[in-house]
## 1
Amino acid sequence: MVGGHRVKIVARLRPPIPGELSDNGIRIITTDDGLPSICVNNPRDHSQVFKFPFSSCYGHDSRQEDIFEADVRPLIDVVYSGATATIFAYGVTSSGKTHTMQGSRAQPGVIPRAVEALFDHRRQMREYDVTLSASYMEIYRDEVYDLFVDRETAPKLPVRENDAGQVFVANLSLLPIEDISEFNKLYTSANKQRSVGSTLLNRESSRSHAILTLEVKLTQQDKVLTGRINLVDLAGSENNKLTGNDASRLQESAAINKSLSVLGQVVHALNQGASRIPYRNSKLTRILQDALGGSSVGVLICNLAPGLKFRQDTLNTLNFAVRTRNVENKPVVNEQDTRSAPKLHFSAVRQAPPKLAPLAMAPPTTRRPRASIAPRNAASGVTSAAGPSRVPRVSAAFHMAEAAPYPSIGKRRESGLGIIRERFNVAKKITDQDIDDKISKAVEAEVERRLKEKLEEMERQRTADEERTRQEAEIADTTRDQTFEIPQPSLPSGLLTPLLKRHQDLDNELRQRLQELEKKYERDKLDGDIVHKLSPKSRKKTGRAYVALARAHSEKGDLQVALDLYRKAESYVPDNMKLKERIIEIDLAVSHGTEFNPSPKRARTRRRPRRTTQARAAQSSLNIIPETSVPGDESHEEEAVMNLLGGESKDDPPKQGGRVTNITFGVELTNSPSKRGMGTEAYRNGEVRRTSPRKRARM
Ligand SMILES: Nc1ncnc2c1ncn2[C@@H]1O[C@H](COP(=O)(O)OP(=O)(O)OP(=O)(O)O)[C@@H](O)[C@H]1O
């Protein structure tokens, strides 16, 4: 064990991009104790400034190398010591995550610099035999794809867990890399496969989470140290009003927002010391399990976008960062004795799981076709089953070297499975078919074992519940028997009535208890999935119910309970920005012990009548962008949200008669000259957006 390690937070503010309006609403200052802080004006009350101190904060003029040298290079030593490090870039769409991680040819980001540093370091490790390998996956709409496999044929990869509880992506390629130029070729080609799309906020917006893993294997006699660095470029959270997403983008966006919302729930559960951490609620969190409360050294780079339109997202990101910095990991050194079976890691299949090693000795059995092998046969004319409908990157933002066509990479393009085959062939001189059989059998056995375990666990639970119920029934029976043993004729009339009534009550109680147990059993079974099993309407309804409950608690001053309930609501309506806003406010009020003043519940507003074509034409001739004209607009959603939260609006005047309120984000509250009134006119891409009549009426 290397020792407890908190996730390190690095904040980076990008410069305004051409055509984008900027203001001084987000700044970096250095506090008296020398810590840099991100300062953000409250978007709802410009007289408030929120401060978020982090160990590293980078302004719009920061250089790629500044971040790398200060916050990433130290991790290279960690990797060479045999531990795992994970760096993930988090932030709203277009905040600069891909720029920070990949960069461009002129400004290479964390990834190319890390690769260079890993190769540089290798030269110093003369006493070891060092090999470097890479795997690269993307999580697109909650499915995992191998970016080193042609995207037309890439199958969805399953996420599994080995006996040691390590999560891994089965059949993910782990390719050896000899030098930087070889990596560049692979990486450039793979990036072209990544799902990207154009939105109003980003011409090349990542529609998936991408995880590149670089693995270093240090061999010295019988010992093998395995260090890894996971470099994660998360897809950005999206406000569909700003992105102008169409229907297909909306689905992608929902998947992105959902997985990021689960990420937030995982961090929250870890902070609360919860017994159940909802890692399994999304593939992203399952795969990042090791980096969040696991055995990896973690660095979170929070990318922030300037400008008023991103202000709420910035606060969401910073709030997530504040919560994440409390997550503690327990890094371990991955050392193996080569005489024993190697361990498995989520990113690697080249290492056979412990169970696989002895299988090489077993006699060959009948071959079973494996779905994951199908794409490998694509070259020989065999097409795979329906592939993912992903959007290819039209032009990779990152071109470190001229892309080489895959065939030139030759053997190194072999999948992890292929590498296992190759190794076994050398060692035991057995056929591909034998190895496929053994691997299939091992995987099947593992799946069967897990299923059995799960069923046994459920059975144990049911038996325990039944036993309890039986005992309760016995008590009830005893009571009844005793009741009937009493010689009735000798009793005065009316004496039995209370006893019989009690018996009746017990029966009812027992029946009720049984029903509760059944419900609980069903609930437990559904727990992880329940949100996804509900229809959108039911999700909204449930979310609304939680919000009502949360609101009642917050009005009573029971903020912690209210916060938990709001978070519960968020798992049902993860896209609800208003709800996120409320969570941040209460979270900060709870963590700083300050007062929270819930706004009064507003009466439901009547829905505006649909605009006619003529009205729309008249509006467009005035060149005004009405709020409801944004493609993919969800004004009805917005209204539901307002109902959900009592009908507040971003344009609401500050509470408490315009005085500075005590809602403190971050650590400290300062006053700045009031800029109130700015919120009455919204700006988008330089065009003035007229405030809607509905909002004007409210102001
Ligand atoms: N620090 C920076 N300096 C200069 N340009 C930047 C910087 N950060 C981001 N940009 C530019 O901003 C735009 C958006 O950045 P990028 O694509 O990296 O955002 P993103 O967070 O990855 O977005 P998405 O989540 O939509 O993929 C790009 O044109 C990028 O070149």
## 2
Amino acid sequence: MKTARIIYNPTAGKETFQAELPEILSRLEDAGYITSAHRTTEKGDATVAAKQACKLKFDLVIAVGGDGTVNEVINGLFQFEQRPTLGVIPMGTVNDFTRALGIPSNIFEALDVIINGENGNIDIGHMNGKYFMNIAGAGKITEVSYEAPSRLKTVIGSLAYYVKGIELIPQISAFPIRIEYDDEVYTGKVMLFLIGLTNSIGGFEKLVPDAKLDDGKFSILILEEVNLAELAHVLTLAMRGEHLKHSKVKFISASSVNVSSYETVQLNLDGEYGGRLPAQFKNLKQALEIRMKKEAD
Ligand SMILES: Nc1ncnc2c1ncn2[C@@H]1O[C@H](COP(=O)(O)OP(=O)(O)OP(=O)(O)O)[C@@H](O)[C@H]1O
């Protein structure tokens, strides 16, 4: 018999998962899994639960929540060399990660991918002892992702991010940065830098051109110092996936990156506060085994 552990965040997204739990358990049982579930109680609890699932040698861990919950689960799994396969049921507000993987937003369709899909191996980012699966970055605008209040997200969904984003615009300013990647160095004043593993970031689906999930490379986007009018223009271009045409937007592909600044710069990891620069980023090629749609589907 195979064993599965569900780790779910009851506060994620519209908070509707719990009502579906009995049906999820019975479908997993029909598929041959002995399954148990853990409801997270606070920030960080999903990491503890994932570590416990490794110790107990579960075959499968199913993370249920938004990107924050998936990130916490991955940070638990990566404390161990022998890890359960990961499955994800998206329940968050934006769910960048599952969108990038083509995992459906419907609970039961996502469960179907877990039960009837196949294992894939995708890249994971490592930064100063922490792991991320989607994006790392810095710049005032990236703080939107953790400053948008949870209650507001439950009630108005992704609009909460726009509300918070508009509030932050007056505070956006450039900061000096040094980025060492492979054998090269970039220095300059930037409004934003993003280190992505997938191309679905902050709800934008074409931010990074053709980011491959398993090539061992980060896609690095830099927005150099611009005024507010230019910023608005870049954002409009980004919505159409045409921002790389702008002269102040730089794109780099690399697997190992060191970033520093002589100012205090906060980092964002998968939508949560991730400490401060300096930081060393490494792409762990194909390190995560995850349930995905069959290629032919
Ligand atoms: N029982 C809980 N009470 C409060 N917060 C929790 C609880 N369980 C987990 N959390 C925290 O909630 C935060 C947000 O969770 P998550 O990202 O899964 O959902 P979301 O915010 O609705 O979605 P999105 O990230 O897509 O906006 C995570 O940082 C997680 O640590």
